[in-house]
Design brief:
This protein has a single domain, classed as Aldolase class I (TIM Barrel), CATH 3.20.20.70. The protein has twelve helices and eight strands. The protein has an eight-stranded parallel β-barrel with strand order 1-2-3-4-5-6-7-8, surrounded by five helices. Helix 11 links the parallel strand 7 and strand 8. The protein is globular and about 45 Å long. The N and C termini lie close together (7 Å). Bound molecules: 2-phosphoglycolic acid (PGA). 2-phosphoglycolic acid binds next to strand 8.
Protein backbone atom coordinates (compact mmCIF):
# COMPACT_ATOMS: atom_id res chain seq x y z
CA UNK A 1 0.00 0.00 0.00
CA UNK A 2 1.21 3.49 -0.73
CA UNK A 3 1.24 6.14 1.96
CA UNK A 4 -2.19 7.21 0.75
CA UNK A 5 -3.52 3.67 1.35
CA UNK A 6 -4.27 3.27 -2.33
CA UNK A 7 -2.79 0.11 -3.82
CA UNK A 8 0.20 0.49 -6.11
CA UNK A 9 -0.58 -1.31 -9.37
CA UNK A 10 2.01 -2.23 -11.97
CA UNK A 11 0.40 -3.52 -15.13
CA UNK A 12 1.87 -4.98 -18.30
CA UNK A 13 0.06 -4.28 -21.57
CA UNK A 14 1.45 -6.85 -23.99
CA UNK A 15 -0.63 -5.45 -26.87
CA UNK A 16 -0.48 -7.74 -29.94
CA UNK A 17 2.81 -9.33 -28.96
CA UNK A 18 3.80 -12.81 -27.72
CA UNK A 19 2.34 -16.25 -28.29
CA UNK A 20 1.54 -19.06 -25.90
CA UNK A 21 5.03 -20.44 -26.46
CA UNK A 22 6.57 -17.30 -24.89
CA UNK A 23 4.61 -17.32 -21.64
CA UNK A 24 6.52 -19.90 -19.57
CA UNK A 25 9.97 -18.48 -20.30
CA UNK A 26 8.83 -14.92 -19.73
CA UNK A 27 7.32 -15.75 -16.34
CA UNK A 28 10.32 -17.70 -15.10
CA UNK A 29 12.64 -14.83 -16.07
CA UNK A 30 10.26 -12.28 -14.55
CA UNK A 31 9.91 -14.01 -11.20
CA UNK A 32 13.63 -14.89 -11.07
CA UNK A 33 14.36 -11.19 -11.47
CA UNK A 34 11.78 -10.21 -8.83
CA UNK A 35 12.50 -12.52 -5.90
CA UNK A 36 9.93 -11.04 -3.50
CA UNK A 37 7.28 -11.10 -6.24
CA UNK A 38 6.98 -7.34 -5.88
CA UNK A 39 5.79 -7.32 -2.28
CA UNK A 40 3.32 -4.52 -1.66
CA UNK A 41 2.50 -4.08 -5.33
CA UNK A 42 -0.47 -5.43 -7.28
CA UNK A 43 0.83 -6.89 -10.53
CA UNK A 44 -1.44 -7.25 -13.53
CA UNK A 45 -0.77 -8.75 -16.96
CA UNK A 46 -2.92 -7.78 -19.93
CA UNK A 47 -2.03 -10.34 -22.62
CA UNK A 48 -3.91 -11.01 -25.86
CA UNK A 49 -7.15 -12.84 -25.05
CA UNK A 50 -5.94 -16.20 -26.35
CA UNK A 51 -3.01 -16.12 -23.91
CA UNK A 52 -5.10 -15.48 -20.79
CA UNK A 53 -5.41 -19.10 -19.55
CA UNK A 54 -1.67 -19.71 -20.04
CA UNK A 55 -0.76 -16.50 -18.19
CA UNK A 56 -3.21 -17.27 -15.37
CA UNK A 57 -1.55 -20.65 -14.93
CA UNK A 58 1.99 -19.29 -15.13
CA UNK A 59 1.51 -16.47 -12.60
CA UNK A 60 -0.03 -18.96 -10.15
CA UNK A 61 -1.93 -16.32 -8.17
CA UNK A 62 1.13 -14.05 -7.83
CA UNK A 63 -0.44 -11.57 -10.28
CA UNK A 64 -3.81 -10.80 -11.78
CA UNK A 65 -4.62 -11.18 -15.44
CA UNK A 66 -6.86 -8.99 -17.57
CA UNK A 67 -8.23 -8.66 -21.08
CA UNK A 68 -7.15 -5.80 -23.34
CA UNK A 69 -10.65 -5.17 -24.67
CA UNK A 70 -14.12 -6.68 -24.79
CA UNK A 71 -17.53 -6.20 -26.36
CA UNK A 72 -20.36 -4.66 -24.35
CA UNK A 73 -22.82 -7.46 -25.07
CA UNK A 74 -22.62 -10.69 -23.11
CA UNK A 75 -23.04 -12.80 -26.26
CA UNK A 76 -24.36 -12.53 -29.78
CA UNK A 77 -23.60 -12.47 -33.48
CA UNK A 78 -20.47 -10.30 -33.23
CA UNK A 79 -17.85 -12.19 -35.21
CA UNK A 80 -14.35 -11.58 -33.91
CA UNK A 81 -15.42 -10.05 -30.61
CA UNK A 82 -14.91 -11.31 -27.05
CA UNK A 83 -17.51 -10.89 -24.31
CA UNK A 84 -16.55 -9.96 -20.75
CA UNK A 85 -17.92 -13.23 -19.39
CA UNK A 86 -15.67 -15.14 -21.80
CA UNK A 87 -12.68 -13.31 -20.38
CA UNK A 88 -13.90 -14.08 -16.86
CA UNK A 89 -14.30 -17.78 -17.70
CA UNK A 90 -10.74 -17.77 -19.06
CA UNK A 91 -9.47 -16.52 -15.70
CA UNK A 92 -9.32 -12.76 -16.25
CA UNK A 93 -10.15 -10.45 -13.35
CA UNK A 94 -9.85 -7.08 -15.11
CA UNK A 95 -10.39 -5.55 -18.55
CA UNK A 96 -8.74 -2.52 -20.11
CA UNK A 97 -11.31 -0.18 -21.60
CA UNK A 98 -10.66 2.66 -24.04
CA UNK A 99 -6.96 2.20 -24.67
CA UNK A 100 -5.88 4.95 -27.06
CA UNK A 101 -4.91 2.42 -29.72
CA UNK A 102 -8.50 1.16 -29.69
CA UNK A 103 -9.85 4.70 -29.79
CA UNK A 104 -7.51 5.77 -32.60
CA UNK A 105 -7.16 2.62 -34.69
CA UNK A 106 -10.57 1.00 -34.14
CA UNK A 107 -12.71 4.13 -33.78
CA UNK A 108 -13.81 3.33 -30.24
CA UNK A 109 -15.97 6.13 -28.83
CA UNK A 110 -16.64 7.40 -25.32
CA UNK A 111 -20.19 6.03 -25.59
CA UNK A 112 -18.83 2.58 -26.37
CA UNK A 113 -16.34 2.87 -23.50
CA UNK A 114 -19.22 3.69 -21.15
CA UNK A 115 -21.10 0.57 -22.29
CA UNK A 116 -17.96 -1.53 -21.90
CA UNK A 117 -17.34 -0.26 -18.35
CA UNK A 118 -20.87 -1.32 -17.38
CA UNK A 119 -20.55 -4.68 -19.17
CA UNK A 120 -17.22 -5.44 -17.51
CA UNK A 121 -18.66 -4.65 -14.07
CA UNK A 122 -21.76 -6.74 -14.76
CA UNK A 123 -19.57 -9.72 -15.62
CA UNK A 124 -17.91 -9.41 -12.22
CA UNK A 125 -14.65 -8.04 -13.67
CA UNK A 126 -12.92 -4.78 -12.80
CA UNK A 127 -12.50 -2.16 -15.53
CA UNK A 128 -9.34 -0.13 -16.02
CA UNK A 129 -10.36 2.87 -18.09
CA UNK A 130 -7.68 4.60 -20.16
CA UNK A 131 -7.87 8.32 -20.93
CA UNK A 132 -5.39 10.66 -22.58
CA UNK A 133 -4.93 13.51 -25.02
CA UNK A 134 -3.14 13.59 -28.37
CA UNK A 135 -0.17 15.86 -29.06
CA UNK A 136 -2.36 18.13 -31.15
CA UNK A 137 -4.84 18.47 -28.28
CA UNK A 138 -2.04 19.22 -25.80
CA UNK A 139 -0.47 21.79 -28.08
CA UNK A 140 -3.85 23.48 -28.38
CA UNK A 141 -4.03 23.60 -24.56
CA UNK A 142 -7.06 21.29 -24.56
CA UNK A 143 -5.57 18.38 -22.62
CA UNK A 144 -7.68 18.82 -19.50
CA UNK A 145 -10.93 19.29 -21.39
CA UNK A 146 -10.23 16.20 -23.50
CA UNK A 147 -9.25 13.95 -20.62
CA UNK A 148 -12.05 15.07 -18.32
CA UNK A 149 -14.56 14.70 -21.17
CA UNK A 150 -13.41 11.13 -21.83
CA UNK A 151 -13.62 10.40 -18.12
CA UNK A 152 -17.05 11.84 -17.40
CA UNK A 153 -18.64 10.32 -20.49
CA UNK A 154 -17.36 6.84 -19.58
CA UNK A 155 -17.92 6.63 -15.83
CA UNK A 156 -20.89 8.81 -15.01
CA UNK A 157 -23.68 7.27 -12.97
CA UNK A 158 -22.05 4.13 -11.56
CA UNK A 159 -22.90 2.90 -8.07
CA UNK A 160 -20.55 3.37 -5.13
CA UNK A 161 -19.59 -0.30 -5.24
CA UNK A 162 -18.93 -0.07 -8.99
CA UNK A 163 -16.70 3.00 -8.56
CA UNK A 164 -14.73 1.13 -5.92
CA UNK A 165 -13.87 -1.53 -8.53
CA UNK A 166 -12.72 0.94 -11.18
CA UNK A 167 -9.12 1.94 -11.88
CA UNK A 168 -8.01 4.67 -14.27
CA UNK A 169 -4.95 5.00 -16.46
CA UNK A 170 -3.81 8.38 -17.73
CA UNK A 171 -1.94 7.72 -20.95
CA UNK A 172 -1.03 10.78 -22.99
CA UNK A 173 -1.19 9.50 -26.57
CA UNK A 174 1.99 11.38 -27.54
CA UNK A 175 3.91 9.39 -24.91
CA UNK A 176 2.73 5.90 -25.90
CA UNK A 177 5.40 3.87 -27.65
CA UNK A 178 7.27 7.05 -28.59
CA UNK A 179 9.96 7.08 -25.93
CA UNK A 180 8.62 10.49 -24.85
CA UNK A 181 7.43 10.42 -21.26
CA UNK A 182 5.35 13.10 -19.58
CA UNK A 183 7.46 15.09 -17.12
CA UNK A 184 6.64 13.70 -13.66
CA UNK A 185 5.31 17.09 -12.52
CA UNK A 186 3.03 17.38 -15.59
CA UNK A 187 1.76 13.84 -15.10
CA UNK A 188 1.17 14.54 -11.40
CA UNK A 189 -0.82 17.66 -12.29
CA UNK A 190 -3.08 15.73 -14.67
CA UNK A 191 -3.54 12.92 -12.13
CA UNK A 192 -4.58 15.45 -9.48
CA UNK A 193 -7.01 17.02 -11.97
CA UNK A 194 -8.47 13.60 -12.77
CA UNK A 195 -8.84 12.84 -9.05
CA UNK A 196 -10.68 16.14 -8.52
CA UNK A 197 -12.99 15.27 -11.40
CA UNK A 198 -13.73 11.84 -9.90
CA UNK A 199 -14.57 13.62 -6.63
CA UNK A 200 -17.19 15.69 -8.46
CA UNK A 201 -18.53 12.84 -10.60
CA UNK A 202 -18.60 10.25 -7.78
CA UNK A 203 -17.52 11.49 -4.33
CA UNK A 204 -14.38 12.72 -2.56
CA UNK A 205 -13.96 9.43 -0.69
CA UNK A 206 -14.26 7.41 -3.91
CA UNK A 207 -11.75 9.75 -5.56
CA UNK A 208 -9.22 9.43 -2.78
CA UNK A 209 -9.38 5.63 -2.95
CA UNK A 210 -9.27 5.31 -6.75
CA UNK A 211 -6.01 4.03 -8.28
CA UNK A 212 -4.86 6.24 -11.16
CA UNK A 213 -2.00 4.72 -13.16
CA UNK A 214 0.32 6.54 -15.54
CA UNK A 215 1.15 5.02 -18.91
CA UNK A 216 3.33 6.18 -21.79
CA UNK A 217 6.95 5.07 -22.22
CA UNK A 218 7.41 3.97 -18.62
CA UNK A 219 10.86 2.39 -18.45
CA UNK A 220 13.21 1.04 -15.77
CA UNK A 221 15.01 4.39 -15.63
CA UNK A 222 11.99 6.68 -15.22
CA UNK A 223 9.57 4.49 -13.23
CA UNK A 224 10.68 5.49 -9.74
CA UNK A 225 10.36 9.22 -10.37
CA UNK A 226 6.91 8.89 -11.95
CA UNK A 227 5.69 6.51 -9.25
CA UNK A 228 7.00 8.82 -6.56
CA UNK A 229 4.37 11.46 -7.44
CA UNK A 230 1.60 11.63 -4.85
CA UNK A 231 -1.31 11.04 -7.26
CA UNK A 232 0.40 8.44 -9.47
CA UNK A 233 -0.64 5.08 -8.08
CA UNK A 234 1.02 2.77 -10.55
CA UNK A 235 2.11 2.26 -14.12
CA UNK A 236 0.58 0.75 -17.22
CA UNK A 237 3.60 -0.42 -19.17
CA UNK A 238 3.57 -1.36 -22.85
CA UNK A 239 6.90 -1.70 -24.64
CA UNK A 240 9.05 -2.20 -21.53
CA UNK A 241 6.73 -4.94 -20.23
CA UNK A 242 7.62 -7.16 -23.19
CA UNK A 243 11.04 -7.72 -21.66
CA UNK A 244 10.67 -9.76 -18.45
CA UNK A 245 13.76 -8.24 -16.87
CA UNK A 246 12.80 -4.63 -17.61
CA UNK A 247 9.30 -5.21 -16.29
CA UNK A 248 10.71 -6.80 -13.12
CA UNK A 249 12.93 -3.74 -12.58
CA UNK A 250 9.86 -1.49 -12.92
CA UNK A 251 7.87 -3.66 -10.49
CA UNK A 252 10.77 -3.60 -8.02
CA UNK A 253 10.98 0.20 -8.30
CA UNK A 254 7.26 0.41 -7.58
CA UNK A 255 7.63 -1.89 -4.57
CA UNK A 256 10.37 0.34 -3.23
CA UNK A 257 8.31 3.51 -3.68
CA UNK A 258 5.28 1.81 -2.08
CA UNK A 259 7.22 0.52 0.93
P1 LIG B 1 4.25 2.16 -23.89
O1 LIG B 1 2.70 1.76 -23.94
O2 LIG B 1 4.74 1.85 -22.49
O3 LIG B 1 4.91 1.31 -24.94
O4 LIG B 1 4.35 3.62 -24.18
C1 LIG B 1 1.81 2.03 -22.87
C2 LIG B 1 0.43 1.56 -23.24
O5 LIG B 1 0.08 1.63 -24.42
O6 LIG B 1 -0.34 1.08 -22.37
Amino acid sequence: MSASSRPTIVAANWKMYKTIADVGTYMSSFYDALPDAGTGVRLVFFPAAVLIPAVVEAVAKRAQVGGQNCHWESEGAYTGEVAPRMLAAAGAELVLVGHSERRQLCGETDAQCAKKVVAVLSAGLDPMLCVGETLEEREAGRQQAVVLGQLSRAIDGLSRDEYSRLALAYEPVWAIGTGRTAAPADAQQMHATIRDAVASIASPSIASAMPILYGGSVKPDNAAELLGQPDIDGALVGGASLDAHDFAVIAAAAAEVAA
